[in-house]
């Protein structure tokens, strides 16, 4: 993380914020991502001597260029945002040298591409809400690329920390995690959830660099949360499709639930919507607790209206 970025807001104005990378300028974001990943690679891991007096953490620029089989000058220009549209071969070589996982490789390709996707209009169709409502025994809710909770079913509202409350105006999950103290009570694995949220926002920022609302959200969280700034500075990206989470409910207690994320398609393009569905192993105490919550929660699905 270095330098100063210009953050564009939805009203067209701009604010200069120290140390926020990965927003707006994709060339700058590409350089920041490469620097962060370069600093993560231990020289010993790639067969280089790690001892002695090294002025940088991780790999030097010339070391990474050599490992990737590209010129040092070209790599320096990539990091500085002076080279555009690197070839697929160059990206693959850099990804291999840096040891990127699948999510990081996709993010690298997105940042390196010339195409700038407009932010999708996340509209919840009546059919999608009907699908949510029919899953009455499974908690489910839908988020957009900014992590706004835009739709939910009755049981899903029970597990979103109040984001589904009818009177609530702000339903952004990232803002909830970092700015609402109650989130740490609901999520005993708060550090993991926070890292996932930041990683997902970084992916969205790379894909939709012209989204003023997303830029404003990242700016707000960076200004008000030192923890957000620290996690954002790592440059990590997250595409979490499935797994297991623990949540604490005021009545049901601590629940351990499996989850799946399903991307909602739309013609002709994507909606940017993701459905999150939770379940528990059949016959387990968690499944029994969910069933009891489902009986109590019946009758309260909803779509965000703001």
UniProtKB/TrEMBL annotation:
SUPFAM superfamilies linked: lambda repressor-like DNA-binding domains
Segments forming domain HTH cro/C1-type: 54-105
GO molecular function: DNA binding
Protein name: Helix-turn-helix transcriptional regulator
């Amino acid at each position: 993380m270095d330098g100063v970025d210009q953050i564009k807001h939805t009203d067209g104005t701009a604010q200069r914020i120290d140390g926020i990378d990965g927003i707006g300028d994709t060339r700058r974001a590409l350089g920041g991502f490469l620097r962060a990943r370069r600093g993560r690679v231990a020289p010993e891991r790639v067969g280089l001597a790690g001892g002695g007096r090294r002025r940088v953490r991780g790999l030097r620029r010339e070391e990474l260029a050599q490992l990737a089989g590209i010129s040092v000058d070209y790599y320096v220009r990539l990091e500085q945002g002076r080279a555009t549209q690197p070839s697929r071969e160059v990206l693959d070589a850099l990804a291999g040298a840096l040891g990127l996982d699948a999510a990081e490789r996709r993010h690298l390709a997105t940042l390196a591409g010339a195409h700038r996707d407009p932010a999708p209009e996340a509209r919840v169709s009546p059919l999608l809400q009907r699908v949510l409502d029919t899953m009455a025994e499974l908690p489910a809710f839908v988020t957009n690329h900014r992590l706004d909770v835009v739709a939910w079913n009755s049981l899903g509202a029970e597990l979103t920390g109040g984001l589904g409350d009818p009177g609530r105006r702000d339903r952004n999950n990232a803002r909830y995690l970092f700015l609402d103290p109650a989130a740490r009570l609901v999520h005993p694995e708060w550090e993991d959830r926070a890292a996932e949220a930041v990683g997902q926002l970084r992916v969205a920022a790379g894909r939709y660099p012209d989204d003023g609302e997303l830029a404003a959200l990242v700016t707000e969280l960076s200004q008000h949360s030192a923890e957000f700034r620290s996690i954002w500075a790592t440059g990590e990206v997250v595409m979490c499709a499935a797994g297991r989470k623990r949540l604490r409910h005021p009545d049901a207690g601590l629940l351990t639930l499996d989850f799946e994320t399903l991307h909602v398609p739309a013609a002709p393009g994507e909606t940017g919507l993701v459905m999150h569905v939770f379940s528990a192993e059949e016959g387990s105490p968690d499944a029994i607790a969910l069933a009891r919550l489902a009986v109590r929660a019946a009758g309260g699905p909803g779509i965000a209206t703001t």
